[in-house]
Amino acid sequence: MDLALIGEGGHSKVIKDLIGSKPGYKIRAVLDDKYEQLQLVGDVYRGPISSAHDLAEQISSLKFVIGIGGNRVRKTIADRLGLASDSYMTLIHDSAIVSPSASIGVGSVIMAYTIVNADVVIGDHAIINSGAIVEHDSYVGDYVHIAPKALLTGSVAAHEGAMIGAGATIIPGKRMGEWATVGAGATVIHDIPAYRTAVGTPARTIAESS
Ligand SMILES: CC(C)(COP(=O)(O)OP(=O)(O)OC[C@H]1O[C@@H](n2cnc3c(N)ncnc32)[C@H](O)[C@@H]1OP(=O)(O)O)[C@@H](O)C(=O)NCCC(=O)NCCS
């Protein structure tokens, strides 16, 4: 499997290790806007994100992963590139436990020691980060980030772009609106409306964005 990793920050390091742990998977390109032009360095192409289209033409088997933790940045890049959805790879660490009845969208990454249980639906370009648990019947929208060790109990919904901070717990049936943020360590016992940031136990709104 030939892969192009978009982004070269902290999150992409973890994805790089995930890819490295999978036999037959190889990083053929790393794209980041710190590079001015596309060039072959050793056996890996390095270049700006805009060179994705040229690369896709050169290497027809190439699949992309956007390895950037910021939800808005991932969405901006995916929108800007406009690549077909089958250009993106879904990555699942071998230590993850994923129910056969779960579905996971393109470009999403399921990190080490995660659990994705029965009838979970995960959208595109989402991150289920190290040790997170997404319990049965939960919904994780496009561009959502479930941070390390966060827990979505049963039938939780985290809509597009929501960020669930490290170690946060969402009790059953609660809804995180689009682009809502839940602080690290929070316990969410009420729905969090779209664009709100909520922290603490029980989680309370501290800010609203647009
Ligand atoms: C919630 C969060 C996004 C807020 O960030 P911010 O907008 O920069 O907020 P600030 O740091 O200015 O804090 C604002 C207030 O909220 C409080 N606060 C911030 N995060 C909090 C948290 N997780 N739990 C409890 N209180 C928190 C601060 O103490 C501060 O309170 P004060 O005004 O009484 O001093 C951030 O603190 C957070 O928890 N992010 C999650 C990070 C994470 O898990 N990343 C995963 C990476 S893989």
Automatic annotation (TrEMBL):
Q: What is this protein called?
A: Acetyltransferase
Keyword flag Transferase: yes
Q: List, alphabetically, the PANTHER family matched.
A: ACETYLTRANSFERASE, UDP-N-ACETYLBACILLOSAMINE N-ACETYLTRANSFERASE
Query: Entry's InterPro entries?
Result: AcTrfase_PglD-like (IPR020019), Hexapep (IPR001451), PglD_N (IPR041561), Trans_hexapeptide_repeat (IPR050179), Trimer_LpxA-like_sf (IPR011004)
Where along the chain is acetyl-CoA bound?
A: 145
Show where the PglD N-terminal domain sits.
Answer: 3-81
Where is the site labelled Increases basicity of active site His? 137
Residues of the active site are 136 (proton acceptor)
Print the keywords alphabetically: Transferase
Q: Which residues bind substrate?
A: 69
Pfam families on file: Hexapep, PglD_N
Instruction: Tell me the domain of life.
Output: Bacteria
Transmembrane stretches, by residue range? none
Q: Report the source organism.
A: Paenibacillus ferrarius
User: CDD domains annotated for this entry?
Assistant: LbH_AT_putative
Molecular function via GO: transferase activity
